[in-house]
Structure formats: structure tokens, C-alpha cells
Amino acid sequence: MILSLDNSFNPFPKEKSILFENFTFSGGEPHIKILEDLNDTKEVTITHRIKSFNDIGLLLIAVNALKNMKVENINLLLPYFPAARQDRLMVKGEALSVKIYTEIINNLGVNSITIFDPHSEVTSALLDNCNVIENYTFIKKVIQQLDKNTLLISPDGGALKKIYKVASYLQNYEVIECSKSRNVKTGKLSGFKVYIDDLNGKDCLIVDDICDGGGTFLGLAKELKAKNAGKLYLAVSHGIFSKGLAELSKEFEIIFTTNSFKNIENTKQFKQIKISEII
């Protein structure tokens, strides 16, 4: 059975969903009540999209509620794992946030935790009983909609390892390496570089795990066009898009993402592939 804590996100549509109600007390505490008798239920998978610490709170009390109802086996599907980008200490005084979140989840004592395309291997290394869904199927669904000679673009050094694995999975796709500089104190981006002299008008697909404000991709798009790129496309596993899609849509023919973080209506320039088609 499935307990989908986000009512607009159900990656297991054919499985029976458990009825529940939840609300937040006036003091800010989340609360949940399971509305079904689960006496004969041995296993439940909880799905949730974590976008705030309150979402974590709802997840914690949901696990506790199921355990109180004597459910023996509990699994989690958390496609977007929070704080996965904060996987190393950059400046003095920071918290190693991903370690905090993983410790909280580990303390639940669930059977398994499934995540989708984490930012780095740090998250999966810190999580107990972790299953990682790589971005291979997602990118395959994207590339099938593009010209077969499209180049795969790695936006920075951090994405290199994963993009070469994707290229190997897809077979016969060339990878172009790029880089950028970031001021760790201010977050300002600069120094975008594309390590090829001439792209010869070929279409380019930038592949990355997360798009937040989009500054990396806007800066890189200008450099790719300066190197004679053809049509530009963007594929990000987790679309936060905190600054919207307007500026990105000026640079990219189509932006691809999944519904791991939120639902966005499909348009001519925006395509969202459901997690249910990937897992």
C-alpha cells in the first residue's frame, strides 16, 4: 500500500493509496491521522516531495503513525532529497546540512529509502538502506525527442562523472565539458568556459541534477552560442525554478525536468516527465 503525503504527487497510481488527513496546529506542529484500518497491512511505501522542514515533520509523524498501527515494513520514496547540494563545508561557520537530514531520516529505522539523482554520492553514502534511481531513463526519454547528433553538455566539473555515465548508457553521444567559477561567500557566478573551439552548429543538451535560480544555465547558454552552438536544450532532474522560467525560455528551445519537486504545466517550451515513468 502507498501513503502519498503530497496529494498532487502519486508515482504509484495503480497501487492502493491509504486515506489520511493532516493539518498544522496553531503552534506550527504538523499532525496526521490515518483513516483506515491497517491491521492486515505488513508493508507500506511513503512518498513525499520535501520542500520545507515542515514536510520533514509530516514525514516523521507519518512513519510514527504507521508504526503505532503495527505496520512492520516501511519504505520511503523521496525523489528530491533535501540539502543534497550542501554536501561539503565551504566557509567557516556553515552546517553540513545533508548530514543533518540524513541522520534524521536514518533514525526512523525504515526498510529502505529511495532517492532520484542526488547531487553527489555523499547523500547515498550517508543514508542507510539507500536505493538510488539514476537519471539514465529520464535523459533517455529527453534525448529521444531531439536530433540524434545532439551533444551532451556538462555544465561544470561536478557534473562530469555523472554525464559520462549517462553518455555510456545512451551510447554514441559526445560530451562537451564546461566550467564556471563561483564565489563561495557571495554565490556569484563568473568565468563560464566551453572547452571546444567550434560547435559547428550542433544542437546541445545541458544535463544537470538541479535548476534553482538558473544562473549557471543562463551564463553557459551565452558561451555555447558564442562557440557556434545550434539549438540549446536543458534537462534537469529536479526543477525548483525559484526565479521562474521566463529568462530560461529566452535561451532554450525546450526545458525538460521531472515532477520530483513540484508540478508545472507542460507548454511548447517546457516538458515535465513524471517520476512514475522513470522508476
- The helix/strand series, from N terminus to C terminus, equals EEEEHEHEHEHEHEEEHEHEE
SS content category: alpha/beta
Radius of gyration: 20 Å
At CATH's second level, what is the architecture of the largest domain? 3-Layer(aba) Sandwich
The first-level CATH class of the largest domain is given as Alpha Beta
Number of domains: 2
Low-confidence stretches: none
Distance between the termini: 17 Å
Q: Please state roughly what percent of the residues sit in beta strands, choosing from under 5%, 5-15%, 15-25%, 25-35%, 35-45% or over 45%.
A: 25-35%
Output the number of helix runs.
7
Share of helical residues: 10-25%
- How many strands appear in the DSSP assignment? 14
CATH topology of the largest domain: Rossmann fold
Strand order in space, largest sheet:
10-9-8-11-12-13-14
The major pleated sheet works out as: 7 strands, mixed
Name the shape in a single word: elongated
Q: Quick check: average pLDDT?
A: 94
